[in-house]
Amino acid sequence: MVGVHEILKKRLIDTIRSVQPPGKWKVVVVDVTAQKILLSACKMYDILEENVTLVENLEKQRQPYPQLEAVYIISPTYESINKVIEDFTKYKTPLYAHANIFFTSAIDNKLFNKLSTSPAQVYIKKCMELYIDFQAVEAQVYSFESPQSFFKLYSPEEAPNYEEEIRKLAKQLLSLCASLGENPLIRYQRSLEAEHPTKTLPYKIAMLLQSELDQYVKDNTDFPPQDNPRPRGVLFIVDRTLDMNAPFTHEFTYQAMANDLLPIENGQKYTYNYTGSDDIPATKEAILDESDKVWIDVRHRHMKDCIEKLMKDFNEFISENAGFTDNEKAANLNDMKKMLANLPQFQNMKEKFSVHLNIAQECMALFEKQKLEKIASIEQNCATGLTTEGYIPKTIVEDMVPLLDDPVVSSYNKIRMLLLYILYKNGILEEDRRKLLSHSGISLEENDAINNTGLLGVKLIRSPLGGDKGRKNKQKLTQENQIDLSRYVPTLRTVLESHVNGTIDHTAYPYTKDPSAEVEAGGKAAPAQPVSLRSAKPAWYKKGQSTENRASRIIVFVAGGVTYSELRVAYELSQKLNRDVIIGSTHIITPQRFIDDLKNLRKPAAALNSQAFNNAPHLPNPPIPPRQNNPGYNPVPSTFGGYNQPPPPPPQEYNTQGGYAQQQSNYGSPGGHQPSGGYQQPGGYQQQGSYQQQGGYQQQGGYQQQGGYTPPPQQGYNSLSGNYQPPPTSTSSTSSNKSKTVIPRHYYVLKTPNALFPRLNVTIYHYLNTKKDFWNSRSLPSRVSKFLYMLKVSYAAYNPINNRKSSHQRVVEEDMSSPIIEFQDILSTEVYIDLDRLRESARHGIPSEVRGEVWIYLLGVNPADRSQELTSLKTKYEEYLAIEKENLEMAKRVRGEVGRYQQKIKNFQPKNDYTHIFENVISAYMSHNREIDYYPALVHLCGPFVYCMKNEAEVYYCFERLMGIIDEYYSTHNINERIANFMTLFRAVLPDLYNYFEEEEVYFNEWATSWLQHLLAKELHLVDLMRLWDTYFSIPDPIEFHPYICLAVLSQCKENLEELEQSEIKTLLLRLPVMDMEQIINQAFNIRHEILERQISDSI
Fold first, then answer.
1. Cβ atoms of 68 and 98 closer than 8 Å
2. Backbone phi and psi for residue 476, each to the nearest 5 degrees, phi listed first
């Protein structure tokens, strides 16, 4: 094929040659942009051979040559036009005899008028548009060399420049097409599932380019050239979001690996050290371009094959030349290095082999030093979704953590591993994110690089409780990617091959115009009717396949940067398909450069940090305008990337004082409240919060655990069969002797339509129905307080918008427990504490203000008889002081575990440091129970008491009482039998999840033992654990009831667990997310009820 660099070179040389002044000689003047274009395709001697005396820079001061004509090759900018005018008007004598002006692209009418009406116009002999506004990098690679485009296309700070930038890119693509003599069919990437703001970028560029091409064809009747035998080509316009794995995956082909690991300037200039024949070290620069035949031959080979090729070619070279014998052939790279120093008579080949010898040696040395074999193995498993054996990888985290902890591994490689893992999982859990970042030790600025990938559509966070499905991409293993560390195939290759094979998804890659209509319009038939690009299945796509399968040229443009692995794809497909494949982009990226750009993507004037950004003044950016039709769109950066749009305003039925208007009768009515409630950013994680009940937007909201609404077990709800029975009714005779249905007295208050507030009705009904003495035994204030509290709790639980709070906010703002007035009423008695009434109230939750005092009575630490209370307290306090607590070894072990425990509960933990209380209480317990060995779970079992009780003695006696209950139970119940029974229940209640655990090899003893033995103290968040223990301390058989709680927890996590792999399942089971404990406790009672009914039925 004729390379892009040769096409551009011919176009430039023909332009210079077209100027034939009478005196033969001429001067070429170029501005900075044109100079880069010129030097990308031509050597200086190529230009000078065309009767050019010198090549000068327009921006610099120049010596006048009034007897010579000037050939201006410039970009059509205001600055360049002014400089040209000044050359003929600023001085008494013009710098040149005449001006022949050639613009790199189309000139704006205003600028052309400025030039044509200026005093310099009398000196202008020729003025043309060349359409060469691109640089030739390689034979099949072009570039706009515009790294700042990445910021203008994706940075929120550069949003005002977005539209202008895509217009500029469209004009540059027009230059490419004009130079290639192509009027291609245009296909563009349509991001069907993407949610990032610039997902329409390829579409906009494609439509602008189509418009530019149509106008160009209209203005130039001889375009495309009629004598061109090549069928009409296809131009693919995609952007960087097409394949986010490619920029981060280590590529071990020669060119990609060298540019990744070595400081090669602009992908071409390589500086290396060598030793000459006199043993004197020296430094030299080498240019890796199309003139280096060795480079062309090996650049796309795998490094292993490249070294073998270099060795073979070198040995052939020396065998063909005198002065060498067979035993002098190089056996390895070091032999080559010694022998090259003794080849002065073959200087050119010596330099070529020396360059590539140094590159190969440096790359392999860094490969070993940076532990790239282990890193690349993890990257390939993530990028392909398969291990080398073709199985789903299950130990990615275990393999990755040691490398994240390793100081030898660079922060860039850690970022690459983390991002590839996030891409593989389609977002990770927030807790996993924190742990992995902690292991990596990367800086905040480096963490920004991870966060900012959200601007390119990368999903960074997903919900721990379902709603978000993990995407585990799997690539089929082929014969072409059998090298273990090079299995990943860039998405671009799959797209182009499917295009040639006719299997491409036409919805994902539509044309800008009907290709069949284009063929007909240029041939025999009339044009077809326009076809909507929004059609799910265009009517013309089958007819157009015949044009795709012909050997036409394929051109690819990747907005936002192209990788070296994608450049390799173009060459490989060109050879495989026997057709020209040309690829280019705004710029060529390396992994390090891409990560550096990501770091600055949200910063003001981020493009200034790019290596290739020009030095022009950069004004502060104005506020970001909306890019979408949604009038409420307002980009707000989240902690881990992506745009969070503010939620929509509340519906008209919303009552600003709390609640929804009662005229709304069902979910599905127009404008009504949907069950999912409110706004949820895709991904589940929304830092910016939700609506307050006053109707405003609350910016300090928290973590939304799960979108949507899941009602709790309802009255009569069968948790195993899913059946539901409505609330009971009774009949009675009225004064009119008519029989009618009468609502029970304690249910009559619930006049709210059941369809509007199903959870509210069922929850309050369930509560009141279990309180047989509710109306008779309570004072009026107590009854009203309890009912209003239940109304608030049920509405808060029902409304998912108001549930978007962290665990700490929930406990501070909405204490999900019985009203404090009820407990104050019980605890204020002077003679005797009504324990039955206290247990009944505590079972539904205890306010945090009185939780410690209530637990003391529920656990029997304080007697119910208030007359003995002071004596008992004094005795216990003296006994506690007498217990030996000085145990340095024990204190050290406890202190270490307390540090980890406090890190776990940092969102709840008050400012005071309670470490000394943990040390004293646990040391006292161990001293009083010397037959028991210390284990870390003691800290977690002690924690709730530390944060509830008023003094250290109360903490100790409550903790001792709990441990006594646990020890007493397990003294008569073997833990292994308990686990076996639990597994039986697990298999019966959740068979699908049980089978999935077995498939993923999640062994039950790795988590079930801790769950059962320590009452979920290590796994639950502290707020949830306290709420659970409120119920446990209120019922007679908490240890027997506990397995059903575990089943309810598994049931609530089931959907998400079935989307995780082995290591992630273990992580979730050992660190549970914030959960709806009211729902879990209710479901646990229902499960136990169903199990008992089933057992009775079986026995009968």
1. no
2. -70, 135
pLDDT confidence of residue 333: 63
DSSP classification of residue 690: -
| Cα atoms in the Cβ-side hemisphere of radius 13 Å centred on 352 | 18
Torsion of CA 576, 578, 579, 580, to 10 degrees: 70
Instruction: Please give the distance of CA 404 from its chain centroid, rounded to a whole number.
Output: 19
Q: How many CB atoms lie within 10 A of CB 125?
A: 13
Cα separation of 205 and 165, whole Å? 10
Strand-pair partners of 127: 101
Residue 872 corresponds to which tokens in the numbers above?
Answer: 């008992």
Is the Cα dihedral 482, 485, 488, 489 positive or negative?
negative
- Which DSSP string do the residues of 820-889 spell out, in sequence order? HHHHHHHHT-SSB--HHHHHHHHTT---TTTHHHHHHHHTTSS-SBGGGHHHHHHHHHHHHHHS----HH
Q: Is 167 exposed, middle or buried (0-12, 13-18, 19+ CB in 10 A)?
A: middle
- Burial letters 923-946, b for 16+ CB under 10 A, else e: bbbbeeeeeeebeeebbbbbbbbb
Whether the CB-CB separation of 595 and 134 falls below 8 Å is answered with no
Let me know: does 588 contact 143? Beta carbons within 8 Å: yes
Residues with Cβ within 8 Å of residue 406, at least 6 apart in sequence: 371
Three-state secondary structure readout of 142-168 = EECCCCHHHHHHHCHHHHHHHHHHHHH
CA distance 431 to 78: 54
d(CA 1026, CA 758): 27
Please provide the average confidence, as pLDDT, over all residues in the chain. Answer: 77
Residues 71, 29 contacting (CB under 8 angstroms): yes
Q: Residue 60, SS3?
A: coil
Chain centroid to CA 343: 53
Residue 81, by phi and psi: left (phi above 0), alpha (psi -120 to 50) or beta?
A: alpha
- 3-class DSSP state of 125: strand
pLDDT band at 662 (very low <50, low <70, confident <90, very high): very low
Above 60 in pLDDT, residue 632?
Answer: no
pLDDT, tens digit (0-9, with 9 covering 90-100), for 513-565:
988 755 444 333 333 333 333 333 333 333 333 333 347 899 999 999 999 99
**pLDDT of 822 over the 90 cut:** no
Residue appearing with tokens 């145990």? 887
The mean pLDDT of 395-405, rounded to a whole number, is 93
Measured in degrees and rounded to the nearest 5, phi and psi for residue 517 equal -65, -35
Which whole number is the average pLDDT over 701-727?
Answer: 36
Q: Residue 321 has what pLDDT? A: 66
Q: Residue 787: what residue type?
A: F
The amino acid occupying position 730 is: S
Give yes or no for a contact between 253 and 565, defined as CB atoms under 8 angstroms apart: yes
Does the pLDDT at position 21 exceed 90?
A: yes
pLDDT in tens, 215-233: 999 999 989 888 777 889 9
Distances in Å between the alpha carbon of 1064 and those of 112, 174, 426, 705, 718? Answer: 64, 49, 13, 17, 31
Q: Where are the alpha helices (DSSP H) in 470-550?
A: 491-501, 515-521, 545-548
**Sheet order of strands, 581-585 included:** 135-138, 141-143, 581-585, 554-559, 234-239, 185-188
- C-alpha to C-alpha distance for 444 and 91, rounded to whole angstroms: 55
pLDDT in the model for residue 657: 35
Q: Could you tell me how far CA 969 lies from the centroid of its own chain?
A: 47
Cis peptide before 224 (omega within 30 of 0): yes
The structure tokens listed for 513 are: 């115009």
Produce one character per residue of 362-393: b if its CB has 16 or more CB atoms within 10 Å, e if not: bbbeebeebbbebbbbbbbbbbbbbbbeeeeb
Q: Please state, in angstroms and rounded to a whole number, the distance separating the CA atoms of residues 561 and 574.
A: 21
